[in-house]
Amino acid sequence: MYERARGADSPWHDYLRLIPDCEPVPLVWPEDEAARLLAGTELDKVKPSPVQISRQTVKQDREFLCEDWKECIEPLISSGELGVKPDDLSLEKYFAAKSLLSSRSFRIDKYHGSGMVPLADLFNHKTDGEHVHFTKSDDSDSDEEEDGDDQSNADSDEEEDGDDQSNADSGEEGDVDQSNIDLVEEKDDDDQSNASADEPSTVENSTAKPSGEGYNDEDLEMIIVRDANPGDEVYNTYGTMGNAALLHRYGFTELDNPYDIVNIDLTLVTKWCSSKYSHRYAKARVSLWHKLGYSGCTSEDAEYFEISYDGEPQLELLILLYIIFLEPEVYDKLVCVAEDLVGDDDQHDEQDTIDSFAKVVEVTRPAKNGVEKLPDVKKLLQSESIGSALSSIADNRESLYGSSTLKDDEEKLRTCSPVGERNIYHSLVLRVSERKILGRLRKHACSWPKTKKRKHT
């Protein structure tokens, strides 16, 4: 914002002339339009937390950035120390600058932090179809381990910048999200699953330190990981992100994005349970579930469950529903021994969760010859009652989108222009994607075996 205000006096003037004034991320949409188009989606959650995606809302983004501007920028304007026009540092231009920084800045390394890198931001994103990666030529093993083991490491750096938002399918937007692609290392093993067969060796060579005349240990290297034919657009990847994250950070979406998810808040589950039983009943069952060491995904003071692209519900949600449906006498028995069932270690993966659930089953369904085999234990979570509950919860989650149906949204999307009606188009892609996942969840739940009814003689 300051460098732009300096005009031709800025050493970055030529570069700044080439990039747009802002990126069309939801942050800079008209406020009423953003509220209307994003209603019910993952970007409309009332949740004061940063992005994973970020689970914070566009409204919260605006509020946080307004606070930042008043605290940091307004005093500079009043002081007159920068020697630029006050209008060049306005709140509107602050939002615009934030959209560019979040979309075009790279996570460079621990010393430099994040920064904009001319030329490196030319490439558009393509999920599981990128041709190039960027890496810093003096990468070290220690840097790779520290900066590359988790995409969320860089997310935290960018949450303070008002969420990573950018816009990459307009032709000029080849931006790399610093929260997913660290220049300090070539880290994205998971992100390269669909790359060409010779990719591993190419990426491995990216850590080799070149030598010779002209070599600079602060150079950036562009590593080719997939062949491109003459005339083809060359893509980068911003990481394995669903459409909510892509729209939030970059201002675009992808049809049939395999990394899409839908989150179901714990409050939605307890609301369903309260309507079926009572608020007191729901509170007690959730309390026991927590006491046994289970939890959903957490984000500050909120808790939620992820539903994967194929409609698979998070295991912890199934265990909670299992506990909700326990008969009173079995529930009481489990309460008495709950503390003895909790291990010393946290549950790190699905197998740990299943193993801990097997201990619960030993109490709730004791067998003559010991606890059921592990596959049988897992089948207990695929009962007709749990499936019915999932369908009801999915209906409640989908009601957040309003009165329109999935068919309505698909028809609107079919006739919508991704250029002339950009905001509408990408919000519809997000809505349709999420609603299809909820549909798969229902189908998934309905496929579970029905309880056999006894014949009366």
Structure description:
It is built from 18 helices and nine strands. It is mostly helical. A three-stranded antiparallel β-sheet has the order 7-9-8. A two-stranded antiparallel sheet has the order 1-2. The protein has a two-stranded parallel ribbon with strand order 3-6. A hairpin with a 3-residue loop joins strand 1 and strand 2. The radius of gyration is 25 Å and the shape is elongated. About 18% of the residues have low confidence. Protein-lysine N-methyltransferase. It is an enzyme of class 2 (transferase). It comes from Triticum turgidum subsp. durum.
Provide the structure class.
mainly alpha
Distance between the termini: 82 Å
Which band does the percent of strand residues land in? Answer: 5-15%
Could you tell me the CATH topology label of the largest domain. Answer: set domain protein methyltransferase, domain 1
Extended strand count: 9
The CATH class assignment of the largest domain is Alpha Beta
Q: Number of helical runs?
A: 18
Order of helices and strands: HHHHHEEEEHHHEEHEHHEEHHHHHHH
- Overall radius of gyration: 25 Å
Helix content: 40-55%
The tally of domains stands at 2
CATH architecture type of the largest domain: Alpha-Beta Complex
Protein name: N-lysine methyltransferase
Family: Belongs to the class V-like SAM-binding methyltransferase superfamily. Histone-lysine methyltransferase family. SETD6 subfamily.
GO molecular function, one term: protein-lysine N-methyltransferase activity
Biased composition (Acidic residues): 140-176, 183-192
